[in-house]
């Protein structure tokens, strides 16, 4: 079986320390990605809450101005 000239040779196995360093870097990167995703999720939730509060305040202002009838409960 002959190798074609454009096929690269198989990679040399990495020494254990280098392999462990790469695994550690990937683990840290994965943690950063998760933290960033959590941050965006909390920011999104905070923005939804702010929008709901603003809508509630607008409704209260309109109701106080007499433009809406009071709520029937």
Description:
This protein starts with 15 loop residues before the first helix and ends in a 9-residue tail after the last helix. The relative contact order is 0.05. The model has no long low-confidence stretch (mean pLDDT 85). The chain is mainly α and 73 residues long. The protein contains one helix and no strands.
SSE series = H
Shape: rod-shaped
Integer-rounded radius of gyration: 29 Å
| Estimated structural class | mainly alpha
Described by strand count, sense and barrel closure, the largest sheet is: none
How much strand? under 5%
Number of strands: 0
Proportion of helical residues: 55-70%
Please report the distance between the alpha carbons of the first and last residues: 85 Å
Unreliable spans are none
Mean of all residue-level pLDDT scores: 85
List the helices and strands and how they pair.
Elements: H1 16-64
